[in-house]
Amino acid sequence: MKILVITEQRQGKWNGTSFETLAAAQQIAKETSGSVSAVVIGKGVAGLAEELAAKNVSEVILAEHDLLDAYTPDGYCLALKQVIESAKPDLVFFPHTYQVRDFAPKLAASLNKGMVADCIGVRNEAGKLTFVRQMFQGKTAADVTFQGAGPWFASFQTGAFRADLLAAHPSGKAPVNQAAIALQPKQIRTKPLELFREAKQAVDLTQAPVIVAIGRGIKAPENIAQAEALAKAIGGELAASRPICDEGWLPMERQIGSSGQTVAPKLYLALGISGAIQHVVGMKGSRTIVAVNKDQNAPIFEIADYGIVGDIFEIMPALTEALEKAKSA
Amino acid sequence: MNIIVCIKQVPAKDAPLTMAGSWIKETDIGFEMNEPDSYALEEALRLKEKHGGEVIALSLGPERVKQTIKEALAKGADRAIHVADDNFHQLDPLGTARALAAAIQKEKCDLVLTGLQSDDQGFGQTGVLLAGILDLPHATIIMQIEADGGKLKLKRELEAGWFQWMECPLPAVLSIQSGINKVRYATLKGIMAAKKKEIATVTRESLGVSGEVTQRVERLYVPTKSKQTEFLSGPAKEVAAKLVEKLKFEARVI
Ligand SMILES: Cc1cc2nc3c(=O)[nH]c(=O)nc-3n(C[C@H](O)[C@H](O)[C@H](O)COP(=O)(O)OP(=O)(O)OC[C@H]3O[C@@H](n4cnc5c(N)ncnc54)[C@H](O)[C@@H]3O)c2cc1C
Ligand SMILES: Nc1ncnc2c1ncn2[C@@H]1O[C@H](COP(=O)(O)O)[C@@H](O)[C@H]1O
Questions:
Q1: Do B246 and A306 touch (CB under 8 A)?
Q2: Does the fold of domain A200-328 match that of domain A2-195?
Q3: Average pLDDT for A124-131
Q4: CA nearest A230 in B: which residue?
Q5: For the residues A250-270, what does the mean pLDDT come to?
Q6: Domain residues of chain A, as ranges?
Q7: In this structure, which ligand is nearest to the CA of B129?
Q8: pLDDT (tens digit, 9 = 90+) per residue, A186-228?
């Protein structure tokens, strides 16, 4: 199968999930005696294309245009449609980034094709591909197959494939080919303005050796004191899932996950957190993960080293007490 | 400003799920408004309060979704459209978007709002597909909307705590992220008023949208674990002591 991988860069910096997606494509190409072409899109990104050419790909397609300097969904859709129509791949792969979710479904639809987004794996059974994705917030996995003729579009979740398995080019370098892109300013309807971060980060959770994270299981802001006491007893920082910060119960700088911070402490305690993928990507690199959840089927247990099926309102105070006892012993 | 809000009804957060082939058993579980959609509805109501116009709730699904439609009406939507489809879960993202788009095309609207992602199928595609099908500009993961003179100024969330401002002309399609506002509760007055509001029902077939798909869910199953979890059980005090023991001497992290 001929696979086209659309890589992602912003202001000349790679989004690392691009390499994981390339690794996924290499794996399928190997199993189906196919080939991988990588696309770099933007302006002034020839250097990045050269970098990709050193990987095991049959070609790098450089999609450059003045109007592709800053990302816009219109610009990317129109440019990549031209790339796909000329490359005629069987599969088009993307890293599942916020940018990809912003344009890729529309790109596929403009070619009358569908997209399977946010895949965590893909299986090849005698040339028939089955894509695996999560449903019901990670409570179930689903096998998904494409129907009808290709090209088929799929995006891959961060961490689903290992970038370190990405193979280098067997003999030097793959050719870098410039794609012809026709694009008019009036075709781009939205105007990107400045990038910014909200208020300075007062706490750097990435440096904390122990993190006590609370989720919606905490129920009400007045219960947070119990988690604080536990964090104090264990010598950790308090963190949270998104809904807690959305509610304003804790500041956003304490949010863990794809839109918050990515952490990898020695110990991560997840209290009343279900384990949705957007949370998990921000903490699954933790050395030891403890999950406390009243639902034994909560997806957080899939990545936990120690699990307690129970009520956090019983466990939090008991654990605080046990830690204090251990300290004084 | 006339606004259509796409609202999906999904299983309640704490509903115990029983898998049945490529979908779940729907009997015996509760359903609720998809969380980001309640933020999208709130945003629509606020825009209407500021700029005037009408808010229309649009939902595709089986009869049960009427309950969520009524909730939207009670919160302040002016009227609703129900695209009745018992087999909605067999549709792919494109099929769902085509059906919603066909219903939207029958209306005159300036803005279409969707949630960012549904808690059940979780495609994360519908808003972007609507923009493609309706040929409208769009933006996703929206955390702030300022409407001014036929133009929108939007705050988009990016990864890892970054944001971006952008401008977008109207009409447009926006996908709303959870946390953009504080959602209101329905008042008793609102609930009473909703009883008189119109819910127009159409079918997907009558909108001329086929059930042909580009992708199909073959089966649902319990995800495979990536780690061997050691479960600790017993009364809280005992479990806590066991855990401290493990963390100290086995994992050596405290
Ligand atoms: C684009 C995008 C970006 C996102 N970014 C992030 C992000 O950066 N970070 C993030 O966290 N989320 C993010 N999310 C949201 C994410 O999808 C989930 O909705 C969120 O992580 C759920 O938070 P939760 O686990 O606290 O809540 P829920 O999913 O509601 O889970 C609550 C859990 O608590 C358990 N529970 C309840 N009561 C108790 C009790 N008394 N004792 C024990 N357990 C109890 C329940 O069984 C349940 O498992 C994002 C979503 C999208 C679409
Ligand atoms: N059946 C539906 N009825 C109404 N709105 C829907 C439906 N499916 C999806 N949507 C809208 O599209 C958004 C994204 O859904 P999804 O693409 O399934 O993740 C949801 O938050 C809704 O706003």
A1: yes
A2: yes
A3: 90
A4: B240
A5: 94
A6: 2-195, 200-328
A7: 2
A8: 999 999 999 998 766 678 899 999 999 999 999 999 999 999 9
Taking only residues 176 to 205 of chain B, the set having a beta carbon closer than 8 angstroms to any beta carbon of chain A reads 178-179
Q: Does residue A261 line the site of ligand 1, with CB under 6 A?
A: no
A241 CB less than 6 Å from ligand 1? yes
DSSP states of B20-44 as a string? ETTEE--TT--EEE-HHHHHHHHHH
The secondary structure of chain A, three-state, reads CEEEEECCEECCEECCHHHHHHHHHHHHHHHCCCEEEEEEEECCCHHHHHHHHCECCCEEEEEECHHHCCCCHHHHHHHHHHHHHHHCCCEEEEECCHHHHHHHHHHHHHCCCCEEEEEEEEEEECCEEEEEEEEHHHCEEEEEEECCCCCEEEEECCCCCCHHHCCECCCCCCCEEECCCCCCHHHCCCEEEEEEECCCCCCCHHHCCEEEEECHHHCCHHHHHHHHHHHHHHCCEEEECHHHHHCCCCCHHHEECCCCECCCCCEEEEECCCCCHHHHCCCCCCCEEEEEECCCCCHHHHCCCEEEECCHHHHHHHHHHHHHHHHHC
**Confidence tier at A329 by pLDDT (50, 70, 90):** confident
Ligand 2: residues with CB < 6 A are: B 6-8, 34, 36-37, 58-61, 88, 93, 96, 114-115, 117-118, 121-127
Structure tokens of A6?
A: 């659309």
Superfamily of domain A2-195: HUPs (3.40.50.620)
Local structure of residue B91 (DSSP, 8 states):
S
pTM listed for this prediction: 0.95
Cα distance from B249 to chain A (closest Cα, Å)?
12
Report the topology of domain A200-328: Rossmann fold (3.40.50)
| Cβ pair B253:A266 closer than 8 A | yes
Atom 51 of ligand 1 has which residue's CA nearest to it?
A: A278
Asked whether this complex has an ipTM greater than 0.90, the answer is yes
Cβ–Cβ contact B251 with A under 8 A: yes
The string of pLDDT tens digits covering residues B73-118 is 999 999 999 999 999 999 999 999 999 999 999 999 999 999 999 9
For A114, nearest residue in chain B (alpha carbons)? B214
CA of A302 vs chain B CAs: smallest distance (Å): 5
